[in-house]
Amino acid sequence: METNLSFVQFRPAFGDKDLNLENAVKLLKQAKQGIIVLPELFSTGYTFTSKKEAAELAEEAPKGKTCRRVVELSGKMRSTLIAGFAEKSSSKVFNSALVASRGEFLGVYRKAHLFYKEKLWFSQGDTGFRIFDTKDGKVGVIICFDWIYPEATRILAVAGAEVIAHPANLVLPGLAQKGMCVRSLENRIFTITANRVGRETRGEDSFRFTGRSQIVSPKMKVLVKASSTETVVKSVAVDLSEARKKAITRLNDLMAERRVDLYGVLTQLSG
């Protein structure tokens, strides 16, 4: 199954949803039809200064402005879009990613592993890790700091993901990019990291986002990548059947030979 994988890398303006959506729409026109990933919190920016501020910028899914626009775009582009946004649900606010495919809202993933002050503004994700089965491929989603926990991508790979979408606002230079190469190899899947660029200073925090968005093959090859500063969209054509080939040698199958009988020790040790 051939499709195109794409990332959008740009600099959101904090709190200006209209401008961020406008800029994202312009950039998305450069992407090829297929699976397209935008950064984490692309419509709001990242550096919140209070829980109240996060709640005021958050919106419900799927009826909020960001969700409605992304769903509409996915239909016009006949593509699958994954986009990070601040989600309001009842009294909670989540750092989430929405998945829309060909005009249909498929659902959200809520970030499981919150980084730094995200713990102050957002509730811990409660969706678990799930596969979104689309006409463009089987997509799993993680967000930013989730990359450092190999369990997240492994769960998705075991469940049948061909592509892991990774919306991000990365600030630790180069680490996640290297880590996601390993995640691709150890699970034999494609990964798309869509990071943002620029510096955002608000309150006592000032973050420089590292850019370097990338798409990695199941054999750990970086197929396309961005620089640390550019606003850019990049696409690459891939054969998703490569993500279903789990043989390391003719005698070794990556998934079939997992020793789940021994891995239970992890549960025992963690109590």
Textual characterization of the structure:
- The protein has about 270 residues and is an alpha/beta fold.
- The protein has a single domain, classed as Nitrilase/N-carbamoyl-D-aminoacid amidohydrolase, CATH 3.60.110.
- It has helices spanning about 15-30, 50-55, 65-75, 120, 150-160, 175-185, 260-265, 265-270, and strands at about 1-10, 35, 80-90, 90-100, 105-110, 130-135, 135-140, 165, 190-195, 195-200, 205-210, 215, 220-225, 230-240, 245-250, 250-255.
- It has a 6-stranded mixed β-sheet with strand order 5-4-3-2-1-14. The protein has a 6-stranded mixed β-sheet with strand order 6-7-8-9-12-13, covered by helices on one side. The chain has a two-stranded antiparallel ribbon with strand order 10-11.
- A hairpin with a 5-residue loop joins β12 (about 215) and β13.
- The model has no long low-confidence stretch (mean pLDDT about 95).
Keyword list:
271 residues, alpha/beta, Nitrilase/N-carbamoyl-D-aminoacid amidohydrolase, six-stranded mixed β-sheet, 8 helices, 16 strands
How would you briefly describe this protein structure?
The protein is built from eight helices and 16 strands.
SSE blueprint and pairings:
Elements: E1 2-9, H1 17-28, E2 34-37, H2 51-57, H3 65-77, E3 80-89, E4 92-101, E5 104-110, H4 118-121, E6 131-134, E7 137-141, H5 150-158, E8 163-167, H6 175-187, E9 190-194, E10 197-202, E11 205-210, E12 214-216, E13 222-225, E14 232-239, E15 247-249, E16 252-253, H7 260-263, H8 265-270
Parallel strand pairs: 1-2, 2-3, 7-8, 8-9
Antiparallel strand pairs: 1-14, 3-4, 4-5, 6-7, 9-12, 10-11, 12-13, 15-16
